[in-house]
Fold each of these.
Amino acid sequence: LAKTTQPISMDSYEGQEVNITCSHNNIATNDYITWYQQFPSQGPRFIIQGYKTKVTNEVASLFIPADRKSSTLSLPRVSLSDTAVYYCLVGAVSNYQLIWGAGTKLIIKP
Amino acid sequence: GAVVSQHPSWVICKSGTSVKIECRSLDFQATTMFWYRQFPKQSLMLMATSNEGSKATYEQGVEKDKFLINHASLTLSTLTVTSAHPEDSSFYICSARDISFAYEQYFGPGTRLTVT
């Protein structure tokens, strides 16, 4: 199972675009990249998932370079309510046991 | 869709007693459910993987006799913390994998256990 590395924390301001990069040098061919958001005392919430290139949904975009050794979660025009911990995980579809790293604590300021 | 519920959302029990936590997939069938534990300001730690109709697979270091897991149906898994001690106080989270959409896990809201 691939291990991921993310910044421990990040600060930004309301209305800005926030990019959180995750490193996963040992990602396997069958691994997908998934990002979750977690608020205090709540279960994680799925944000986005991708395998390669770019994926976009109504809340975020996920950019994955060709070598797939990293990925970037992009949150457009963040608000105070986006303050949370963001986890990047990689895992194979067939198994999908997830190893959770430390996550990135994102703090949005007014 | 894809809602996972947990009950109770929080529980306080005395040391030495047992506590059961339920995890339900409300609108989908889950062949696999996962149980996690999360201590304050720490990440999630996988405790066990539960497959419907079979014994759970526990992660290294997790006592199977202390954390009893039952996955009797495609919509319900239970975690029983037996003979609870204060060090078992934690946030317990379950997740379920939708057999129709194998790529995603859906997480429950968590259960806060406090052992006094």
Amino acid sequence: KAGVTQTPRYLIKTRGQQVTLSCSPISGHRSVSWYQQTPGQGLQFLFEYFSETQRNKGNFPGRFSGRQFSNSRSEMNVSTLELGDSALYLCASSLVLGSAQDTQYFGPGTRLTVL
Amino acid sequence: GNSVTQMEGPVTLSEEAFLTINCTYTATGYPSLFWYVQYPGEGLQLLLKATKADDKGSNKGFEATYRKETTSFHLEKGSVQVSDSAVYFCALRTGGGADGLTFGKGTHLIIQP
């Protein structure tokens, strides 16, 4: 079974631009979560989608948004980019929504650099 | 809120040495506990997990036991290899999972031949 895929793997943008990242979950997985990884803050939860609806959200500004499609694929959007948005963005998929016991499987990430 | 504390390293060991990476946590509610590993340039891979007290997770020679009384989930391996060099993350998620996974800062492990 194919794993979680993310595109693109690398992005370079300038301040003020907006960016869209894509994630395809493992086949049969219906929940998709997004995380930001930076050297300073470590790994932080952004949001979780299930059945095309955002179900849970971390402590990030409204510039960070996302959506999920009927095939469970998800996109994440960051508007008005700031230098501090430079990070590795990781997508994770799991079978069910919000379960402590369910395992989240991660993709390889998208490395975003904001200049 | 939830939090995870682990040594950040780098931790440098010789091949075939015994490994322990400490992980302690605080959680509101009853968490499940996880260890993930990240190799250079890659995403996170699940190494092992435990979902209730006294459970032992194991995989690829690594083990960790869920200790509720000491709120700990220490990672151990009896004999490390150069290929184990990576960053290891301890994480938890509580029932309902509204906050997603909460991660420690990660421990950079370097194994020398």
